[in-house]
Structure formats: C-alpha cells, structure tokens
Design goal:
The protein is α+β, with helices and mostly antiparallel strands. The protein contains 2 helices and 8 strands. The strands form 3 sheets. Strands 1, 2, 3 and 4 form a 4-stranded antiparallel sheet that branches. The structure holds zinc ion (ZN) (2 copies).
Length: 96
C-alpha cells in the first residue's frame, strides 16, 4: 500500500449507511463515496478511502492529496508546486 490517504473528509450516517465526502486540498472540490452499509464507521471509512484514493493524486513535493484537475501528471506534483504552463511557473518564481 502506498502512502497514507490524508485528504480532508466528512462522514454522514444516513439510514444505516455511511457516506464519506472527501475534499481536494487545493480547490476544495469534493468526491463522494458510494453509500456503505457497515456496523462501524471505521470499517466504512476504510472502504471509502480505498475508493476515494483512486480519484485523488498525491503531490510528491508537498504530500497533499489533490483532485485530477489540480494534479500535474507529468511532474507527479500538484499544480501549485508544478503549474501546468510555463507562464504560471515564471510568475510564481518571480514572487520568491
Ligand atoms: Zn482540486
Ligand atoms: Zn504540491
């Protein structure tokens, strides 16, 4: 198993099912797991995380979990660490 999945989430318990909503660390958009029937929230969380981590990507620089839109697959980093285009990169570089 790869690194620990640390995206922020909220958990709802509705009609005997748990559903978790995970949030991208950069843009805050959410991914909702499918409803999980389980006796314990710990089990439900493990199932939901296994599902959600396929929809998120971990930045290898800052270790944040971000959605596909916030991920630069070429660099395996988030778009904040590795912006998609060179213009953004120059702007960020000139700020430092
Ligand atoms: Zn995002
Ligand atoms: Zn990053």
């Amino acid at each position: 198993m790869a690194s620990e999945f640390t995206a922020k989430y909220v958990i709802y318990h509705v009609a005997g099912r748990f559903q978790l909503h995970f949030f991208c660390d950069l843009c805050g958009c959410s991914y909702s797991s499918s409803p999980i029937r389980s006796d314990s929230s710990d089990t439900a969380r493990a199932v939901a995380i296994a599902e959600a981590r396929r929809h998120f990507n971990r930045c290898h620089k800052c270790n944040r979990w971000v959605c596909g839109q916030c991920y630069n697959e070429d660099e395996m980093e988030c778009v904040e660490c590795s912006p998609h285009n060179d213009i953004d990169k120059r702007v960020l570089a000139s700020r430092h």
